[in-house]
């Protein structure tokens, strides 16, 4: 992020008066900076009292816990709420269905406008139970890993919860991933069960989901059963006895299934994410800690109140969808909007039509979407009644101040709180964010840490904590919080080496940060080889290995370059093997096939050679400078094996 974003003199935006007026808005949970500071200090000084109390108040425990926290960063043996037992779906569904069966749990806004559907807590409980019974009849048991590859339909949420009902882990794979990516994730998890659909609709287009699953399963010998939900009704291939129809199976079973009571530390799910190497990692979250933070951040970060309509636009295949479209809202007994379509379908009015139609109070999206809507112009927005909105939020990458201000003015109409939430798949829930009615905002800053998040900034070279308020370095966390990921599936060493070993005694976020003189945090971006395209996390190594799998590719270097619309974009340099030829189009297809369309590079340059040190290491720094047109700042070139190459590469980049 350019340094000019970071303007510590940035205007402070006050809390909109409407949010503090009890005749217009619900009374905020936290309504002053003093109240925030007091609770924050308590949460850091006495984390066990703090989280113990909230855990007892927020979750329903079948067996109460005795020990709040054990273990820590030193040995990577973090465990919360030992002895406690619970079931996630009892917390997310039963207890609300018992009290208020007719309350709407899910508002499903289908791809085609006008086909929306509401699902009450009573219905949700019955649907979850029936599917859970069907899964159980086919052998799903506590601890099994069920891979879910589904479109954005309520049945996807039902599938999450049916697994959790049985104590089975779900591993949701975003439906934009290719067959090969799906295959790798199923194989890594040795998943025996897959839940999918015949097809999906998105933006008016049909997606052949079942075909992709069939392709993936050609090399997944562990899979015994595939549950197929009928979404479109088109004819799809069906392999008996492996495949079974969801609608046929559930007819056989009663609509109550006793919840499997699990220990607090039993896993709830895996979610694969990209790291610095080519192999995706299965981030593992446990039941009580994850659920607790999903609910607690929903309450405080989003100032959630009974009756609110929560509109998280993220796909449920990513952590944002897990935490803020599914578990957070349902754990709080709230109403969550599940949006199947895209912001442009059928027109760029779509988001605002659904805000007005469903009276959405909380709208949560990514900076890339905000920038796209900004480009389309405010006339699509001005004509809609957005008066239901109270909190508008952003996640996934740093939001530039201009987009922040536009969001505040045009979408929020200067009467909503703008909440920039910083977090990661591994943190499980938001860790830095304003609290809507307590923390003044600065456009571009995620502001201050959430309760229990003990931040520090380390000097990236010495690894020492920077004690002054103003600081620049890498962002780390000093103490565990309940929703921190516990391990990487089947690779605890990788977990330890990635997060806990780089700076002993701390959790390493992988992000660099600036803390300004008011103590506000400004996330600057990743310090590893992870890039962020439209809020999607992609590892350069993963794209490189997809390219290496192409028979013509000799060598490649993939880099992230800042991009006005998508935050960063992928640029790939490739050299070919002798006597081989191919073109950028073919290599693009290769990446789409191996990873998925969202990883498509913006540019692929086929070149004669890559800049290397004398020991043969590719100098990505130079490639970055060439693309950003900063060839006057190439720095030390003394180690470069062939200095003439620079001019050739510059010409190549300029002419493509
Ligand atoms: C990485 C995590 C958490 C849900 C979406 C992404 C970047 C995320 C922000 C923000 C600046 C952000 C970081 C982080 N990031 N939110 N508000 N401001 N950067 O989850 O795929 O696990 O990616 O996204 O670089 O490390 P993820």
UniProtKB/TrEMBL annotation:
Listed SUPFAM superfamilies: Acetyl-CoA synthetase-like (SSF56801)
Keyword Ligase (UniProt): yes
Alphabetical list of PROSITE patterns matching this protein: AMP_BINDING
Residue ranges of every copy of the AMP-binding enzyme C-terminal domain listed in the record: 542-617
Catalytic activity: acetate + ATP + CoA = acetyl-CoA + AMP + diphosphate
Domain AMP-dependent synthetase/ligase: 94-483
EC number of the protein: 6.2.1.1
Family: Belongs to the ATP-dependent AMP-binding enzyme family.
Protein name (database record): Acetyl-coenzyme A synthetase
Species assigned in the record: Gigaspora rosea
């Amino acid at each position: 992020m350019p340094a000019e974003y970071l303007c510590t003199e940035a205007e402070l935006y006050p809390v909109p008066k409407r949010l503090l007026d009890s005749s217009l808005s619900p009374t905020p949970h936290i309504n002053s900076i003093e109240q925030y500071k007091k609770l924050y200090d308590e949460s850091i000084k006495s984390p066990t009292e703090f989280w113990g109390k909230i855990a007892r108040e927020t979750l329903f425990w079948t067996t109460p816990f005795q020990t709040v926290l054990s273990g820590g960063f030193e040995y990577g043996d973090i465990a919360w709420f030992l002895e406690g037992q619970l079931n996630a779906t009892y917390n997310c569904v039963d207890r609300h269905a018992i009290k208020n069966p007719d309350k709407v749990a899910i508002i499903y806004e289908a791809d085609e406008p006008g086909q929306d559907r509401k699902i009450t807590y009573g219905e949700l409980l019955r649907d979850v139970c029936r599917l859970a019974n069907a899964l159980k009849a086919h052998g799903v048991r506590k601890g099994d890993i069920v891979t879910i590859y589904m479109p954005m339909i309520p049945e996807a949420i039902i599938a999450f919860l049916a697994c959790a009902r049985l104590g089975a882990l779900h591993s949701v794979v975003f439906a934009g991933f290719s067959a090969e990516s799906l295959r790798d994730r199923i194989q890594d998890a040795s998943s025996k069960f897959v839940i999918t659909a015949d097809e999906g609709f998105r933006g008016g287009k049909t997606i052949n989901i079942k075909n992709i699953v069939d392709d993936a399963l050609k090399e997944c010998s562990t899979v015994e059963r595939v549950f197929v939900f009928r979404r479109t009704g088109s004819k799809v291939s069906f392999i008996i006895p492996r495949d079974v129809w969801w609608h046929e199976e559930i007819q056989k079973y009663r609509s109550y299934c006793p919840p499997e009571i699990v220990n607090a530390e039993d896993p709830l799910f895996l979610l694969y994410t990209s790291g610095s190497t080519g192999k995706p990692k299965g981030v593992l979250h446990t039941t009580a800690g994850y659920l607790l933070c999903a609910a607690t951040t929903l309450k405080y970060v989003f100032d959630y109140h009974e009756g609110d309509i929560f509109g998280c636009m993220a796909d449920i295949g990513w952590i944002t969808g897990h935490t803020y479209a599914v578990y957070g809202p349902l754990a709080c007994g709230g109403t969550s909007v599940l949006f199947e379509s895209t912001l442009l379908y059928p027109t760029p009015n779509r988001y605002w039509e659904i805000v007005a139609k469903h009276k959405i109070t909380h709208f949560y999206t990514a900076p890339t979407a905000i920038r796209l809507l900004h480009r389309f112009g405010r006339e699509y927005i001005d004509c809609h009644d957005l008066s239901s909105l109270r909190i508008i939020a952003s996640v996934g990458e740093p939001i530039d101040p201009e987009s922040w201000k536009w969001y505040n003015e045009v979408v929020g109409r200067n009467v909503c709180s703008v909440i920039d939430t910083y977090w990661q798949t591994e943190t499980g829930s938001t860790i830095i964010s304003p609290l809507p009615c307590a923390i003044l905002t600065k456009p571009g800053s995620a502001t201050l840490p959430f309760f229990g998040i003990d931040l520090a900034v380390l000097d990236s070279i010495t690894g020492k904590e920077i004690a002054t308020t103003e600081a620049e370095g890498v962002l780390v966390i000093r103490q565990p919080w309940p929703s921190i990921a516990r391990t990487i599936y089947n690779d605890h060493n990788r977990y330890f080496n990635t997060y806990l070993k780089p700076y002993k005694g701390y959790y390493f976020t992988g992000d660099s940060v600036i803390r300004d003189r008011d103590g506000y945090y400004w996330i600057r971006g990743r310090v590893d080889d992870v890039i962020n395209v439209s809020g999607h996390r992609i590892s350069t190594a993963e794209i490189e290995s997809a390219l290496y799998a192409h028979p013509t590719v000799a060598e490649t270097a993939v880099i992230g370059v800042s991009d006005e619309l998508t935050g960063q974009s992928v640029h790939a340099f490739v050299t070919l093997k002798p006597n081989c030829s191919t073109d950028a189009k073919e290599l693009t297809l290769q990446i789409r096939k191996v990873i998925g369309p969202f990883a498509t590079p913006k540019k692929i340059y086929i070149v004669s050679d890559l800049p290397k040190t004398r020991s043969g290491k590719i100098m990505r720094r130079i490639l970055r400078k060439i693309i950003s047109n900063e060839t006057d700042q190439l720095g030390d070139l003394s180690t470069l094996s062939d200095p003439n190459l620079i001019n050739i590469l510059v010409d190549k980049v300029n002419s493509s």
